[in-house]
Amino acid sequence: MSSQAPHPTLLIPGPIEFDDAVLQSMAHYAESHVAPGFVKTFGETLSLVRKLFQSTNPAAQPFVISGSGTLGWDIVASNLIEKGENALVLHTGYFADSFATCLETYGANATQLKAPIGERPSFEEIEQALKEKPYKLITITHVDTSTGVLSDIRRVAEVVRRVSPETLVVVDGVCSVGCEEIAFDEWDIDVVLTASQKAIGCPPGLSILMLSGRAIDTFKSRKTPPSSYYSSVANWLPIMQNYENFKPSYFATPPTQLVHALHTTLSQITARPMAERFAIHAQASERVKTAVAELGLEQVASKRENQAHAMTAIWLPEGLAPPDVLPGLLKRGVIFAAGLHKQVATKYIRFGHMGVSVTDPNRTDIDKAIAALKEALSEAKQAKGI
Amino acid sequence: MSSQAPHPTLLIPGPIEFDDAVLQSMAHYAESHVAPGFVKTFGETLSLVRKLFQSTNPAAQPFVISGSGTLGWDIVASNLIEKGENALVLHTGYFADSFATCLETYGANATQLKAPIGERPSFEEIEQALKEKPYKLITITHVDTSTGVLSDIRRVAEVVRRVSPETLVVVDGVCSVGCEEIAFDEWDIDVVLTASQKAIGCPPGLSILMLSGRAIDTFKSRKTPPSSYYSSVANWLPIMQNYENFKPSYFATPPTQLVHALHTTLSQITARPMAERFAIHAQASERVKTAVAELGLEQVASKRENQAHAMTAIWLPEGLAPPDVLPGLLKRGVIFAAGLHKQVATKYIRFGHMGVSVTDPNRTDIDKAIAALKEALSEAKQAKGI
Fold first, then answer.
1. Which positions are annotated as binding substrate (chains A, B) (predicted)?
2. Residues paired with residue A98 on neighbouring β-strands, in sequence order
3. Quick check: B1 pLDDT over 60?
4. C-alpha to C-alpha distance for A131 and B150, rounded to whole angstroms
5. Closest-CA distance of chain B to residue A312, Å
């Protein structure tokens, strides 16, 4: 039994349902951010982030900073690329547009490589683009929360290393870290930025990043100083290194209670092999996608290989919009999200299936949601005479 | 009785002790950041921020953003001043140096007006400086956490309005909001930036700002776009306006659990007149400062009128350093902070007395701390043969 008050099950692509222990760990009594107790918690948390990314290379560095996932874009844009340098932005939905805007805010030239809605740029197009001009970095949205499109970051990284080996491979893993396979060292990735509130299962409020040795070196060889202050790697790098070595350090007060929550959830996640966790998410995803097909519905992510395992973006039947279906789901105790991709937002809904809702064998969230979707759709069609 | 596990009392100048109800409100079940329940909580929280600042002018705008207090500097530096424009930074300790660095990161020219340690620039010096060149903004650290020096922001604002009426008055209120008097509208202040974890009594992780109509107009008349993305007022202003009107809105996922905690603590704070709260802090401060004087100790803040009411920075007797005294305090169940001002950090300690430790009549934190300080000092002197 959960200690949480009765509530509808939150199955949007983040924030997600919380495990009781994670929630309760935020009720820790007040601590000094530089006292031994908290320093130990924070230091261990950073080491757990390495495990989350299956990384053992000491040249790589995890960061946990107070802020939303969006802050990770500023950290990339103001530290790893300089004014007038080029960024190649692979576009699979809403979030690439925003990342490109962020890069341009700090003076980079962002070139977007766009795919039709529900698809992703091909490896050939990526290779071609990389050969056209020197790119300081390439960004890939691992799972675009607006479309449910999954990118193959491993193969993109291979293409980059072959064609343009110095280009930094930057992964926006906000909706993928904790549920999609990421082998940070082995796949030779330079940055993964993410947030706490999706498959990691922590409340929102933490910007989490992993930087490779190559990324840190790129930062250190900048010709100009970092173009932000709060997002400056120069300010945060010594802090993270110190805490991980259990030495107190101060740049800005860390969000102590959220760090406790992150420590708890990462301890749970890394207590089992990451491969097992990815497999559980893939199985749950398969169940959802099979049920969606059985309802005669199509996914926004059009091909099997580009469908995320943590969420499903579902086209509604012609004549139905999200407000026709979401209240029927809520009535049945389930919360899905409306569409987010501006061009088609009124035509689809999003079902998030990650974290405790799929990993906790005592929960029946997914079955309940599939049943609710079937009933709510049928009710909505009847109401509209479809 | 507190529901919190037994622990030493945290009496540093932030984070501070938590009220049980504030801590427990973070254990709220997961919510969508755009669903009616959370939208109401966030909207009400923003209105409560207005009450905290005693502001009723609809042209002013509160902001609550995921981040530490430091993020507020970036928001000022990247939105309210442009490259090559001048900022006058009043220096009363460590934090002015950092704010100046932040302003310069985004291209402003920061001129620091410094006072000797423990003092503050005189009103005559401020007036003189304002006459020397046009300043886009002036920054004042209301209470410098490194020295315990209190600035008279009301009188500084009067000088600015008289001598250079267009200059924005920017107050760093990280260690003052919730314990030192601030009448945002009446004193004609343009920005107060603060954090959640000091006298507001919320866990760390929220950057809280109040911008005047003049500040918003200054932002809107920029010649260049904001020079950051996550800190951009252009990105956050519509979000805050929408939530306050109970309309869901998305730029970055808000830190839902911390917003609940802020809602709880601001509801508690604003349930009583703010004047009463300031008076309680002033009384507690008086008790601490009298006890410090009775122990024959001097304060870093040298004059009565520039001594903060939320903390006391105490010079240690000649021959003693913080590591000689802090363990003796901890042994007696009390945590103070070491010095922070680089030039003199080894010569003083800091005692924070704010929030529930002074406002909750059931707590004896201050008496316990005063007794512990007396004993720990005497023990330390004996050990050193002083």
1. 350
2. none
3. no
4. 59
5. 17
